Amino acid sequence: MKNKVNIGLIGWGTVGSGVVRILKERKKHLSRRVGAQLRLKSIVDLDINKARSVKVNRKILSREAKNILSDPEIDIVVQLIGGEHPAKDYMTNAFKKGKSVVTANKALLAKHGKEIFKLARENNAEVGYEASVCGGIPLIRSIKEGLLANKIEELRGIINGTSNYILTRMEEENYSFNEALQEAKKRGYAEADAGLDISGLDSAHKLAVLASLTFGTSVALSDIYVEGIDLITLQDIRYARELGYAVKLLAIAKEKQGRIEARVHPVLISADYILASVRHNFNAVCLKGDKVGELIFYGAGAGQLPTASSVVSDICDIAGKLIRGGKGRVNSFLYDALSKKVSPINKLESRYYVRFTTLDNPGVLAKISRILGRKNISIASVIQKQRKEGRTVPIVMMTHKALEENMRRALGQIDKLSVVKGKTVAIRVEEV
Fold it and tell me: Which residues pair with 121 in a beta bridge?
């Protein structure tokens, strides 16, 4: 049995520094739990002279990743750099050398997961990716091990803290979208360019990882319908509240009759549902298993130490397997060889919240209702409070269940009406 597991770290940034800190502070504790010494043998970063919050022996620092990838003593490569390249190249080279990899790079897994996990399997290597989704929440390990006896039927999650913070501030402080976004940037909850977050794409990267794992099949990023929060206004937040709902950006995955739903978009959810109470930059995921029922995972979805905690957890998990020769472990790969089709968004059936911006002229409501009726869309309720004859006013409707493709066609026709002055906002209602 091995009594030492050597680790090479590529990427000594915020999360990387957190990993080094935990490995140093918890050294004895982790060694006892794993059954072997965890030794940080090498650190690679483009800037090794920058001041960090944790100090290391400078002899282990390098600017060249090859110093880790070519070192036969390195057992686990911790790869904490973003983007596709050279991150993918580093992982590929590590696997070919028989090294296992721990990563937090959800975009890389979302785009190249099938190839990455196939290569790891062929080289008898492990992939640890707990930190790629929901920061410090032990969600991935719970799905692949703790819930192994279950067939997961549904997954709903708030998995982007930036968007959740913006929507929370709009609700709590009556901020406009732009005001909430600027505050998120000032507080460090949003990057200077927050496009990846508010567009829903960051959530889609994470959902691709979760859905593939949950349903045992490859769910490509291109299979996921993505819609962001940039069209949500304070009006929508207020109307939703009046109707008994909250507006949230959800990542949703479900399996129905052998087909997968995978989508990211704003939804109206009942104000009484547990996800409606998730505030600010926190993450939460609800899973429904056929044996265990509904579970919720809640906590810090990002940050140095929460994310580093998940990275170190993966290091220990893989180290434990290495010292025991790989025995007694559940298959930890992202998905099996199953093939299930992903349903297109056009086939979704949902209730809708719809806000039209129209001239306050006689007959407007009748024109809109006529088009909806021709597309088999039934109106459940209408709100029209403001009266400004000859000027624009909002008309808010809640519909009964309708087919997505019918709703899109109807709104396409309605937005062409001369009395409609602005793009109509439609938000799906997620029923739980």
Answer: none
pLDDT for 127-176, tens place per residue?
999 999 999 999 999 999 999 999 999 999 999 999 999 999 999 999 99
- Whether 96 sits among the annotated catalytic residues: the reply is no
3-state SS assignment for residue 174 = coil
Give dist(CA 221, CA 315) in Å, integer: 27
Task: Say if CB 162 and CB 189 are below 8 A apart.
Answer: yes
Burial of 432 (0-12, 13-18, 19+ CB in 10 A): middle
Helices (H) and strands (E) in the chain, counts: 14, 17
Among the options 41, 99, 111, 206, which is catalytic?
206
Contacts 24+ apart (CB under 8 A), 118-124: 119/92, 119/95, 120/95, 120/333, 121/333, 122/95, 123/95, 123/96, 123/98, 124/98, 124/326
Compute the distance between CA of residue 241 and CA of residue 320 in angstroms, rounded to an integer: 49
Confidence of residue 389 (pLDDT cuts 50, 70, 90): low
Q: pTM of whole model > 0.85?
A: yes
Return the structure tokens found at 9: 């770290």
How far separated are the first and last CA of the chain, in Å rounded?
50
Q: What is the pLDDT of residues 208-252, one digit of tens each?
A: 999 999 998 889 999 999 999 999 999 999 999 999 999 999 999
Structure tokens at 218: 């490859």
How many whole angstroms from its chain centre is CA 382? Answer: 34
Q: How many CA atoms within 13 Å lie on the side-chain side of 191? A: 9
- Structural contact between residues 89 and 68, judged by C-beta atoms closer than 8 angstroms: no
